[in-house]
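Tutorial, part two.
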Amino acid sequence: MTETRRDLPQLLGEARRWFEEGLLADLAGGGVPAVTPPQVQLFAALDKDGTTVSELARRMGVTRQTVHQAVHALVAAGLLEQVPDPASARQRLIRRTAEGRHAHDRARRALDRLEARLAERIGADAVAALRAALEAPWGEPPTGPVSRRSPR
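Running the prediction step on this input gives:
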């Protein structure tokens, strides 16, 4: 019986889910209102002083409607608020409330603990190598057929 090699995007997705599940469990255990993985992604994409819906949609690679839905749920949970954008009378900024800042700080600490737990399981060198590979500039994605040789 031969094993099939799993695709790198599949492995990256599983790794992301490992972190998301650990993060969501920590947040729930800490009394943070229930959030979904897409809401966590939106929360992480926010600038400290607020971000427009259009910019959030661009950063997340989703539609403005998708962002609006997630924002609405997070506003209802008391984690986000909408305020006028001082740079544009037509736009509003989405930013964290005091409770949202508390949840964001808790999430940051939880992610640090999860990364330490991963280092215990697979080794600090493996985690450092993974981080280095993911932080390296990959360049723009190919726009046509992918050749075996990389352009110089």
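The chain has a mean pLDDT of 92. In part three we will examine how such features are distributed along the chain.
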